[in-house]
Structure formats: structure tokens, C-alpha cells
Amino acid sequence: MDRQKALHWCCGASKLDRIGQSASEAARRGRRAARGATGATPARRSPAVQGLRFPLRCNAQRADLLAVNVKKIIRIDDLQVFVTTAEAGSFSAAARLLDISPALASGAVQRLEGCLGVRLFVRSTRRLRLSDDGQRYLPHAVAALETLENGELALTEGRDEISGTLRLSMPSDIGRNLLLPWLDEFQRRHPGVLLQLRVSDQVADLFGEHLDASIRYGQLADSSLVSLALAPANRRTVCAAPAYLARHGLPESPGALSEHNCLRYVMGEQTFERWSFQTPAGPTTVQVTGDRISDDADIVRRWAVSGFGIAYKSRLDVLDDIRSGRLVEIFPPEYGQPAPLQLVCPHRASLRPAVQALRAFLAGHFERL
User: What is the DSSP letter of 261?
Assistant: First the structure.
């Protein structure tokens, strides 16, 4: 960095320009005063010029210090071009190996020489050879590139290993009754994984809670997140225990649900009491009521199994209950709203091998249900 550039850095270009303008104006006033003087006494120096001397001297000293202390940054690609040129014997040969132009290769070496303040090559019209400084510098440049490559390999090996802490959130019902034993199996396969589970039906804050992934129902609203499908064809289903249906009868249509005790679920401040369906006649929504509400989806399922009312649940949540006869599906499966299950990650960088392995493991289990 030369002295003038450093001075601009210290003062700021606009400030330096104002100082220069003041000095020029003061000098012009001084010359006019000198030409108009009749006596031998010279015109006094302008106060602006007098006040200018110390700031300029101070800033110039700071600029000199900055010019000495600020070092130029060596570019890694310049090091690579230098090493390749030394091995290939010419800029044109190095350019072919690196898939760049000879002019770009020559410019990279010149830039490196400028940073180091030495000539690395002795150039002539017929040949190119390393200078004494170039021969001394070459092994250090090779060692630097090897160190960087080893560092990248170390990071790659860490990324490929299925281990480390895996912070995961999942809904309460499917989490406790279906996913928990699957996660036990996953850890038996990958003992290097430390699993931290957050079980809740509330939408997890992936960034605020420092989660690697979250298992969620429904379509992804935040496009900045990354979604990986687990059970994309899953839907919701209306179901009840045989004992409840024996006492109150089987609803013949979604509209008849308004006459039944419906078990409702609440998330945050919103109670899900408007149940939507896709019927052959078209979409329909029913306002339901009942004597039980919970923010825990597993409790709603347990109420339904115990015969307290009708529930509108993800089919994955109640699949085992339906197969065992503890619950009965009331309407055809295609009536239910889509409820795709997915593994949601905060960003692409969070797709570590452990997360990708978990997604493949869970998706395989869902396919076999």
C-alpha cells in the first residue's frame, strides 16, 4: 500500500479532499495578499494553512505506519498456478493442466510475486526457470497446498461418518407409539449417534431450538426450510371405537358429525373444530363440537380408543388401532384431508450423513406399513 492510499484510508477520501481544497484556497489567498503588499513584510500565513500543518503531519505518520503494517493477501489459486508452472516448465503447459488461459496463469504468478516482493521465475524468450527465491519458496507453497487439501479431506471424512449428536423433534402420538421403537433400532445400527428428542405437537422452532431436523405433518409453509418426504400419501381419517358407535350409531355422512361428540385438538391458540373433507360431491367443511379438547394428539387418540367420542386423526397415528379393531374408520380413506409426513431441516448444510441416513431409514419403514 503506497503512502497516498494509506492516507486516504486514514482520513477518508472525502475528508482528504476537503483538506486539499482548504489548503489550495488558503494558498491562493496568501499569494494574492503577497502580490498586493507594498512593504517588505511578507503576507502572514493564512490561519487555514497554519491549522493544516499538524493534522497532515499526524495523518501522514499514521499512513506510513499502515503502509508498513498492512500485508497483502496471498490467493490460494495463485499458489496453485505457481506450483503447477514450476512442475510443468511453462505458463502454457500449466494453463492446459489447470484449464485456464496462459495469460491468466502468467498474471497469477505476477500477482504472487507482487505480494512476496521477489521474482519467482527467470523469464527469457526461450525458457522459464525458477529463480533462487522461487526455489526456496516452492517447497513451502507445496506444503501449504497439501495442508489445505488435508483439511478438506478431514472435513469430508467427518461429514461421511454417521455419528454425532442428532437433535430431533417429533409429534407426540406418532412419536411415542410408532417412531420411538424405530429410533431405537436406528441407534442400534449406528451406535455413534447421540439422539436428543423433543416430543411435542407444537411446531418446533428449528433455528431457535438448534434442531437438526423435525418430523412434521402437512405442507411446508416456510420455503427457506428443506423438506424430505417420509410418507407423502398419508391422509387424515375419521374414526371411533366400536363401543361408541354401538351407543350412538354410525354417521352416514360428514355433515352428520355435528350431531356427535367430537374429540378436538388444539395447537397454540387455534382449536381444530372445522373438519374438512373431500367427498364425491366436492369439498365440504363441518363445524364440530364435543366435551373434550387437548393439545396432546396422543391423548385425543386415547379418548377415542376408550369410546369417548369421534376423532379426526392422521391415519399413521391410528393405523395400529384400526388394524387391531380398537378403532373403526367411518368414511372412505379418500375423504380425509392430505397429511403428508416429512422430515424438515433448517437448511441444506444440516443434511449431514446422520440426517440423510435417518430419512432413508424412516421412509423405508413407512413404505412397509
Answer: B
